[in-house]
Write a structure and sequence with these properties.
heterodimer; A: 259 residues; alpha/beta; Rossmann fold; two-stranded antiparallel sheet; 31% strand; globular; B: 322 residues; five-stranded parallel sheet
Chain lengths: 259, 322
């Protein structure tokens, strides 16, 4: 069984994140780049299956600038066996159609039984790339899982919905997306950190994936027209409770017609 | 005017999703709204009438035996068939669980750009432009596509309604390739909740944090919410601690809310939480820690103990409305 875990390097959400107002793209220099936490949860689920099923291979796949290798090494130090890194200057600012094409081609090259992605990244919040990959590869998607069971032939779990959950399954090969209901990831141990440096990482360009630059630019159909930064909120009244604060607050709410 | 397609999600119990009203309102602004549905059986008269009252002049029904058992694929096939038949100017879909997956799969089929999580759309110089509010409303971004856009719209973002119409139904059979779809085995419906409003689109929200210390104590949050007629929210810390269900999580990775009133109780206000609530019109915070970052965004802050102040608030609000 080969499980490929998709990993996105994103700016830390506990830092202030910046948008380049000229391009409408993420300012990658603002904020510490880290593995998106949802991907670490996905990796943890894959590693647990590997813990119980010898012969399982866990591959981490990331598309991103050169420094995304840092996130791949982090995943390798946690226990993944190898990495795939899609790096290409023409992918800077790629939209979801382009991103899903590059990742799909890389998945076909690497081979997979199960692909594990996060339900949405913390920087894009789109949650659409995995579904696009499922469409491109012609494999089932079980999205927004709150738990997952993997067997040799299928994957199943509970999918979050608007009015509750649904029990769903799909035969392999398939792609799943995990939600925050999955457990936090393990920490890398010393041995993991030492061996991560020696684990293989396959670095590939678009040309090596059989995608030419003209195809990328014709596919890139989204455009940011303008981006505006909203002024920061300012603090209002702050009072210490001396026993009358509740009454003062109710008056405030009443004045503002909020009660 | 050109057609604008709206994917209307119909639950397995036959309910039209709340998102339909806002999506049809936006579609009516851009062109002639067409409601696209994927169902197994012919549509009941009351469903057709309801879609008309929400503004759909036309209902395009993709009928498939797989509807209800194949995950999302029937909606994708219905949308793809409707796009082929009607050559719409845009496709609008809720940024919901099913909606965004359907939008993404459709976009690959039609080679369309997807504009995600829009809070508004408009037509300008012959283009359709989606406005998004990203990273907790820190940035407002206008974007557009070359060719027909597929736009996902944030649930609860649209207040308006389309003018009523009388819906005409077009039914077409669609085929789902079972090998490429997940299978729905059964549903675990959430219990029908109380009359408390749901978090998405709520006008008032009362949220609690880890400061409550236990699930039992978290009932205070619910009491204040009920007194105000508000929805209940929670910080991630409170959800992780098990005080409140994950569906109530407000923040970066939970729900984003923009109510008229947001009351943060015992919430420190980490940047990830603020990303989910700082576009509220009025923010009230109560916290023991005078240095809690939540006070930096609060219009009215009280430094004090939630266990003392919240019961007093509940009493005072009840006394007013009595």
């Amino acid at each position: 069984m080969r499980i490929v875990v998709l990993v996105k390097q994103v700016p830390d959400t506990s830092d202030v994140r910046k948008l380049d107002l000229n391009t409408g793209l993420l300012d990658r220099d603002a904020g510490e780049p880290i593995v998106d936490e949802i991907n670490e949860r996905g990796l943890e689920a894959a590693l647990r299956y590997k813990d119980d099923n010898k012969g399982t291979e866990v591959v981490v796949l990331s598309m991103g600038p050169e420094n995304a290798i840092k996130s791949i090494r982090k995943a390798l130090s946690m226990g993944a066996d190898s990495g795939v890194h899609i790096v290409d200057d023409s992918l800077a600012g790629a939209d979801a159609l382009v991103t899903s094409l590059a990742i799909s081609k890389a998945l076909e090259r690497t081979g997979y039984d199960l692909v594990v992605a996060g339900n949405e990244s913390t920087d894009g919040n789109g949650g659409i790339v995995p579904a696009m990959i499922s469409e491109r590869l012609g494999i089932p998607l079980l999205g927004f899982l709150v738990n997952m069971e993997i067997t040799e032939a299928q994957v199943s779990g509970e999918r979050q919905g608007d009015d509750g959950t649904a029990n769903v399954h799909a035969g392999l090969p398939a792609i799943v997306t995990v939600t925050e209901r999955f457990d936090y990831a393990r920490f890398p141990n010393f041995k993991g950190i030492m061996t991560a440096k020696r684990k293989p990482v396959d670095t590939v360009t678009l040309a090596e994936l059989g995608v030419d630059a003209a195809e990328v630019s014709s596919l890139d159909r989204t455009e940011v027209i303008s981006a505006v930064e909203r002024p920061a909120r300012t603090a209002g009244t702050k009072i210490d409770d001396d026993g009358t604060a509740a009454a003062t607050l109710v008056e405030y709410l009443a004045t503002n017609r909020l009660v | 005017m050109s057609h604008v397609l709206v994917l209307v999600e119909i639950s397995h119990r036959g309910h039209i999703a709340d998102s339909a009203r806002g999506l049809l309102a936006l579609a009516a602004r851009l062109g002639d709204p067409v409601a696209v549905v994927a169902t197994r059986e012919p549509l009941a008269d009351d469903v057709v009438a309801k879609l008309g009252s929400l503004g759909a002049a036309q209902v395009y029904q993709g009928r498939s035996d797989a509807a209800g058992t194949a995950l999302v694929a029937p909606q994708v096939e219905a949308l793809a068939a409707a796009v082929a038949a009607l050559s719409p100017a845009a496709v609008l879909v809720s940024h919901s669980y099913d909606g965004r997956e359907a939008a993404a799969r459709l976009a690959v089929r039609t080679g369309s750009g997807v504009l995600v999580d829009a809070v508004n759309v408009r037509a300008e110089d012959g283009r359709i432009i989606a406005n998004g509010s990203i990273w907790g409303g820190n940035y407002l971004v206008d974007s557009a596509t070359t060719g027909m856009p597929v736009i996902t719209v944030r649930p609860g973002a649209v207040d308006e309604s389309a003018p009523q119409a009388s819906a005409q139904v077009t039914a077409e059979s669609v085929t789902v390739d079972a090998a490429t779809a997940g299978v729905i085995d059964s549903y675990n419906d959430a219990p029908e909740v109380s009359e408390r409003p749901s978090l998405l689109g709520a006008k008032k929200v009362v949220s609690g944090g880890r400061g409550f210390g236990s699930k039992e104590n978290f009932a205070l949050v619910e009491q204040l919410a009920d007194a105000l007629g508000a929805a209940v929210g929670a910080s991630r810390a409170a959800v992780d601690a098990g005080y409140s269900p994950q569906t109530t999580q407000v923040g970066q990775t939970g729900v984003s809310v923009s109510p008229d009133l947001y009351v943060a109780l015992g919430i420190s206000g980490a940047i990830q939480h603020r990303a989910g609530m700082q576009t509220a019109k009025t923010i009230v915070a109560i916290n023991k820690d005078a240095d809690a970052p939540i006070f930096e965004v609060a219009d009215f802050g009280i430094v004090g103990d939630v266990f003392t102040i919240v019961p007093q608030l509940v009493e005072a609000i009840k006394a007013r409305s009595a």
